[in-house]
Amino acid sequence: MRRRSRSLRAARSLGADARVRALLDWFPDHRRPLPWRRRRTPYRVWVSEVMLQQTRVAQAVPYFERFLRRFPSLRVLAAASEEQVLKVWEGAGYYARARNLHRAARQLVREQGGRIPRRSAELRKLPGVGPYIAAAVASLAYGEPILALDSNGRRVLARWTLERSDPSSARFSRRLERWAVRHVPPERLGEFNEALMELGETLCRPTGPQCAVCPAASACRARQELPDPGAIPSRRRRGPKPLVVGAVTAIERRGRWLVLRRPSAGLLGGLWEFPGGKLEPGESPEAAGRRELREETGLTVGVLEPVATVRHEYSHFRVALHLFRSRSPRGRLRVRGRRHRWVGMRELRRLPLPRATLKMIPFLRPARDPGRVSRG
Ligand code: SF4
Fold first, then answer.
1. Is the beta carbon of 157 within 6 A of some atom in ligand 1?
2. Domain 243-375: which topology?
3. Positions marked catalytic
4. What is the pTM of this model?
5. Of 125, 174, 197, 282, which residue is most buried, by most CB within 10 angstroms?
6. pLDDT tens profile 231-289
7. Which of 25, 204, 224 should be mutated for ligand 1, with most atoms under 8 A from CB?
């Protein structure tokens, strides 16, 4: 305890912005060579910030590199179809981010000759660009003196200042923003934004912060005053992710499979999938597979072969999907409000697909012995 009090007094004597100075001194020697830092252009900064929303750096890097290889400039992105963009984004999740980025690129090419606005206020007018992305792009790419606090930055500042208000409240963010604006020299805000994110990503992790090697440790209030600095900000206990049980029917006709495109807005928007949906209470997977197929396509099936149960975990829920296949659809195909296609396996792999659908493909090799089958 005595050690802590002494070091806290020493830190206070350094002045209110000791943590800021320590962070800015630390950053140049510790910044990771991330791909979007190698050649910093507004477009690359923007793509990286969109990808980093709800995604950790390590996960975002391969997606970023793949995206930039395929769409190296705003104009190339704008010229692509939404389907091409979603295919390249496949697996990165939160597909609305990709659709909005694509819409914004088209808007900029159409209305501003492909120029990315320099000011955060202008950036915010683009589809999918909220206050954080606008501030991050304007400060990192153009040096606008504006604060950009993401969840990493908020966590670090909350620990520095021992901010105990509810992290989901507006008050929490407002107080941290006020603190930062008071303590960071405006001309260094861009650098501060990036350094703070880096500290939050590398050392000041949500649990088990590595205070022993942290540059701000001597003045960090959580480190000095709490037995566990990771207890700030308070975390709401999350229960297990809800499980959605569904049934999916893969219909095959002369080597081609029927797939439907999900509506553009909403979960997994714009991706392609086999007909299917959730089980209703008391319904068997097979009955659900037949019902969903009838409702979505107007088709009924005779033989329905159970193939596999595919499990996947999305960010907020888990799915267990009973996969059936049939080669004997009956009736007239009627798909309302959605696009549909009959595609061969090779073409299917070229479409943007949800992860769970991708997992189904290996089970859909050409049928030989139908095994366990049921008749409708
Ligand atoms: S001292 Fe610990 S809690 Fe404080 S900023 Fe550094 S890593 Fe985070």
1. no
2. Nucleoside Triphosphate Pyrophosphohydrolase (3.90.79)
3. 49
4. 0.82
5. 197
6. 999 877 778 889 999 999 999 998 899 999 999 888 899 999 999 999 999 999 999 99
7. 204
